[in-house]
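Annotated sample (chain length 73).
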Amino acid sequence: MSSDITPRWLDLASAAKYTCMAKKTLKKRIEAGEIYGSLKGGKWFVDRESIDAFHLADKAQVEKIVERVLRSR
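Output written by the structure step:
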């Protein structure tokens, strides 16, 4: 098994590193329902696939905004 495989469920510190977000920001995204996380035994676990989906949706939104700005010129 390769060590470069990222598991589906990450603890909060690993998820923050994976997203390049502060833990506080990541928890806000979880509380807002933008990323799926679960509190188990006092410890947060974050679904990596929901992080990926969040970033893809964010990227698509940014691309739409850029398109609109470029068309308005």
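Annotation: The beta strands are 9-11, 37-40, 43-47.
Annotation: The mean pLDDT is 88.
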